[in-house]
Amino acid sequence: MSNHKSVLYAFIIFALVIGAMPLSAQSNIDSPYSRYGYGTLDSHAIGASRSMGGVGYALQSGKQINIKNPASYAAIDTLTFLCDFGVSLQIDHMKEGSLKETRTNWSFEYFAMQFPMARWLAATLGVVPYSTVGYDYTGSITNGTTRQTGEGSINQAFAGLGVYLFKGFTLGVNVNYLFGDITNSSTSISTIDATNATVFDNIIDVSDYRIEIGAQYTVRFNKKNRLTFGAVYTPGKNLLGKGYISGGNYNTSSGSVTYFQNDTINLKNEYSLPASYGGGISYTYDERLAIEADFTFQPWSKAKFENSTSYFNNSFQAAFGAEYLPQTYSNNFFQSVRYRAGVNVGRAYPRVQSKTGENSLWETAITLGAGIPMKRNKSIINISFGYTNRRTAPTRLVSENEFKISLGLTFNEMWFYKSRLH
């Protein structure tokens, strides 16, 4: 085995160890809107997709892993092994009236590897977040104050296959394992008797499987021009796991808690996830220009949470992204960089309550980035800069502006090449 492959093996082990760290971490976001439902959902955009507005249903490349559509796995070269991981720095600026707050977090975001199993078959393994919760704020109640906190995440480990069925058509499937826990807590302290407080904890501990099915069809007009159509479907299902609900009286002097409620429930009867429908179309020219448009719809209004279907709105998102490579082969640095940009807009699933009634949560995101080739191989450093604005309507509540810098590394190695020289 060559030295660079030994280094890559060591990198994979290192990435797996580091990747396991956030799975047990308390939280890697600070958003007041993550208190609703299962928290802030991840886009599952990795590598190039992350700086292209999160598109991916029709994205097809043998040099980048695209987990948004498992049908894309079949595009990998039969001699290639791909390994991808990413980290990010996130700055959240929140404003409500004259009140302002800024918080900073970092996170290890994803890990994935992809390899061919036959000329017509490829496999992908990895782990990404499904949702994340992180918030901490206080408010006023009659004769007292209340503090609301939340932390935790649901993670998604996956194994997928992509198969080339016939000319232009690929089909894929991901088997996902959802695991992790989310804790929402509420502490109320009376101004009349500050030594006693009432504490409620609601913990969701998830352990469940889920599948997603994808398809892509490519029409080649000539050697340089092609059009790809992509679609992904994820069935809805009842969520498996346990729920723990507790309530107690907390003595602020002694630190002791006397519980008056301590219940355990099965999530299957009271919690569920909706189906997801996604479709996209992309145009590729000479493997140097790629333009894609995607649309996603999820009927969250049918999903149960705490045995109720009144917590969520149907969510939808439209995304547009592009990538441009000036020259396929060039010794000029700027001519060999892949330049990327994207935008997405849509309505998130939480139904936000206020004194004036129900509100929808709207999101708008803009991304810019680049894929920088490593000098002596086909590996790529992916850099992405993203801005996301979250706001409610019709009543304007907390306005959240998120700035994110993401750094990813895609190792592209020829593991399956057999040299004729001995």
Provide the descriptors you would attach to this structure in a database record.
422 residues, mainly beta, two-stranded antiparallel sheet, elongated
Task: Walk me through the structure.
The strands form two sheets. This protein has a 14-stranded antiparallel beta barrel with strand order 2-3-4-5-6-7-8-13-14-15-16-17-18-19. It has 422 residues and is mainly β. The protein is built from two helices and 19 strands. The chain starts with a helix and ends in an 8-residue tail after the last strand. The longest helix has 18 residues, at 3-20. The relative contact order is 0.17. A hairpin with a 5-residue loop joins strand 6 and strand 7 (196-220). Helix content is 5%, strand content 61%.
**Amino-to-carboxy terminus distance:** 13 Å
Q: Which strand order spans the largest sheet, edge to edge or round the barrel?
A: 2-3-4-5-6-7-8-13-14-15-16-17-18-19
Q: Determine Rg (CA atoms, Å).
A: 23 Å
> How does the overall form come out from the CA principal axes?
elongated
Which structural class is indicated by helix and strand composition? mainly beta
Beta-strand percent range: over 45%
The pLDDT mean sits at 86
SSE order and pairing:
Blueprint: H1 3-20, E1 40-41, E2 80-96, E3 99-118, E4 121-141, E5 144-166, E6 169-190, E7 196-220, E8 225-234, E9 237-238, E10 241-251, E11 257-266, E12 272-273, E13 276-285, E14 289-298, E15 315-324, H2 333-336, E16 338-354, E17 357-373, E18 380-393, E19 399-414
Antiparallel strand pairs: 1-4, 2-3, 2-19, 3-4, 4-5, 5-6, 6-7, 7-8, 7-10, 8-13, 9-12, 10-11, 13-14, 14-15, 15-16, 16-17, 17-18, 18-19
